[in-house]
# Entry
Amino acid sequence: EQERADSYAERLEKAESQLCEETSKRAQLERTMRDVSTTTSKAEQDMLRAQAMSAGAVLLEAEVLRLTRVNEQAEARIAELEHRVETLIARADDLAASQNPNRGIRYLEQLREEREIASKDAEDAGKAVQSMRAALQ
# Structure
């Protein structure tokens, strides 16, 4: 009976030892799973940040292209206005050489129209500059 009791005690100790090992393994497995979960979460956050940065870069590139197009349009408009100024100067010189008052009146009317157009162009240019400044900020 003593031998059986010793045998049971020995088996109980082995079972307790195995239980302790299994509990330790389980705790380590749970920690590993938490680490994996944390790492996965961080990886997902990093991926979202990278996607946001990529989207931001695409938006910035699109804005740069838009501003380039606006700049090209402004340069074309400036060239057109310079041509109009040269034409007006030539007309003014022609008018100065002529003594016809009707031509002078027509020329003044044309100058008023040109001034209105130039004023509108200046407003549009101001808006474009404000838009560019806002986009760059």
